[in-house]
Design a protein that fits this description.
Blueprint: H1 3-37, H2 83-86, E1 97-101, E2 119-132, E3 135-147, E4 156-158, H3 173-184, H4 190-199, H5 206-232, E5 236-248, E6 251-262, E7 270-276, H6 281-287, E8 293-297, H7 301-307, E9 312-316, H8 318-327, H9 333-353, H10 358-386, H11 394-403, H12 423-439, H13 445-463, H14 468-478, H15 492-495
Parallel strand pairs: 1-3, 5-8, 8-9
Antiparallel strand pairs: 2-3, 3-4, 5-6, 6-7
Helix pairs in contact: 3-14, 5-13, 6-7, 8-9, 8-11, 9-10, 10-11, 13-14
């Protein structure tokens, strides 16, 4: 072989390598361009009517760095905390006041020893900031004080103050419920809630609001624990996780909020959030250590470990499978289109199946969907063996993602209450994703854990079409005196019952 021939072969080999790299880079640029400017829907608009599935008998169915020199900030001198100002609540003189008299019983106004009537010697007055829809007002509790007219040693008799969720709190449960719903359902940061209140002349510091949120989270945690316990015993769950920011020394660090949805087989009611400082596999394994039953999730490796636990039936999410092929635009276009069309048929069939009885649903899955899945498995395996795939392309990633799930892809077809996707968890976690764009981060680990408790109750209420403000106000008034063995009565789905 001459030197010239060898050089030509080396150049041709280099040319092929460069072409592959260019194709990979073009694929990445096309994907990023679509993320920025294209439609986000995964719907295939190119399918014409001739490609529609015919089902006999089922027809109804980050900014650039600045060149400016950095400013030198002088050393910060910490001021001594003025707690009196920070904890102070102010309100205008014109604010509506609702007076509530807490008096002792008439028979207690008579001295049992002498038979003489007690004399009123004054009143004990307490004020709490309260809330009605669209209106902040003051609840004024008046408790008359009585004493014996001749025997001072008998002391003073006064009616006890109503016990609240937070001892000696200057906010009524109605106001606390309004703050919690504003933050965890309407996604308002505490500083914005304080600003809204200030426009009506009500002054409550952000620090005081934060303290109330922490203490409400701690008081409501028994309900949170009970919901999680019921999910783990339900035999049908949906799990997902999303990053959140946690304030730490030197700035914010990334932490994670996990969500697990369950409670019963067909319509899971409970949505429980759990805060973890990392995304380590141990958190998922600990959360689901004793779980048995059907388990829906994406293909995160921690969930694959859970799937190997005894008694767990893993149903991986077909939406994620579809998304992988949808993003592989620069791969084999004909084969990609065929795969997406087959997956689309599965979703069409599921729509029909969920409109039928559980028995009919299983029949549709076994007779119509299982053959489609088998065909997908056979063709995708053959395509992988065939080769001619760029080693780092999104198309190869999609094929590998599918092949890794083959042992589990048909699990959902064997249980009537199982689903093709993990959208139940995706929908549950979406409000948190919207919220973090507003309040940005959790101020502390305690704050994140309290947030998880309140988020769980608020979002469970929203899933059940319950007004979370009404629910929280009622439950916060009752939970301190409620029997522990009857705590289930205060869960959102039970509270809804007449």
């Amino acid at each position: 072989m001459t030197t010239q021939t060898l050089t030509i072969e080396l150049l041709l080999e280099e040319n092929q390598l460069l072409k592959a790299q260019i194709k990979l880079l073009q694929e990445q640029v096309a994907w990023f361009t679509k993320q920025l400017f294209g439609q986000r829907s995964e719907k295939l608009t190119s399918l014409d009517n001739s490609e529609q599935l015919v089902l006999p008998g089922l027809e109804g169915a980050v900014p650039a760095p600045s060149d400016e020199p950095k400013k030198i900030v002088p050393e910060h001198v910490r001021r001594s905390a003025n707690r009196n100002d920070q904890d102070q609540i102010t309100f205008p003189e014109s604010i509506h006041v609702e007076t509530i008299v807490l008096d002792i019983a008439e028979e207690d106004k008579i001295c049992k020893d002498t038979g003489l009537p007690l004399v009123k010697i004054g009143e004990e007055i307490s004020q709490k900031l309260a809330y009605k829809p669209g209106k902040t007002y003051i609840k004024k509790f008046v408790r008359p004080k009585y004493a014996h007219p001749k025997q001072e040693e008998k002391g003073v008799v006064i009616a006890p103050m109503i016990e609240g969720l937070i001892p000696k709190c200057r906010a009524d449960e109605s106001f606390l419920a309004h703050v919690l719903v504003s933050k965890f359902a309407d996604h308002l940061p505490l500083y914005r809630i304080a600003e809204i209140l200030s426009r009506d002349g009500v002054g409550v510091s952000r620090k005081l609001l934060s303290q109330w949120v922490l203490r409400c989270g701690a008081a409501l945690k028994p309900l949170y624990n009970l919901m999680l316990e019921k999910i783990l015993k339900s035999g049908n769950s949906y799990v997902d996780e999303t990053p959140v920011k946690l304030q730490a020394k030197g700035g914010c660090k990334q932490a994670y909020m996990w969500v697990i949805v369950g409670g019963n087989e067909t319509t899971p009611a409970y949505r429980v959030f759990r805060f973890c400082e990392t995304r380590a596999h141990e958190h998922a394994l600990k959360l689901l250590a004793d779980y048995e039953g059907v388990f829906h999730s994406d293909k995160y490796q921690a969930y694959e470990k859970v799937a190997k636990q005894k008694g767990v039936i893993w149903c991986p999410c077909w939406v994620h499978v579809r998304r992988k092929f949808f993003e592989a635009e620069q791969g084999d276009p004909v084969f990609r289109k065929w795969v997406l069309r087959k997956i689309r048929y599965l979703f069409m069939l599921e729509k029909v199946a969920w409109a039928r009885s559980p028995e009919e649903r299983l029949k549709i899955r076994q007779e119509k969907e299982v053959p489609i899945i088998n065909e997908l498995i056979h063709k995708i395996k053959a395509r992988v063996i065939d080769g001619a795939i760029l080693p780092k392309s999104k198309f190869k990633e999609a094929l590998g993602y599918f092949c890794g799930l083959i042992p589990y892809l048909k699990n959902y077809t064997q249980h009537a209450f199982a689903r093709l996707d993990n959208n139940t968890a995706e929908r549950a976690i979406r409000p948190l994703a919207i919220g973090r764009k507003n309040w940005l981060f959790f101020g502390s680990k305690d704050g994140a854990e309290a947030g998880a408790v309140i988020l769980s109750l608020v979002q469970t209420c929203r899933g059940l079409n319950i007004n979370p403000e009404e629910y929280l106000e009622d439950v916060m008034r009752r939970i301190m005196d409620h029997p522990v063995n009857q705590l289930e009565e205060l869960l959102p789905d039970q509270w809804l019952k007449p």
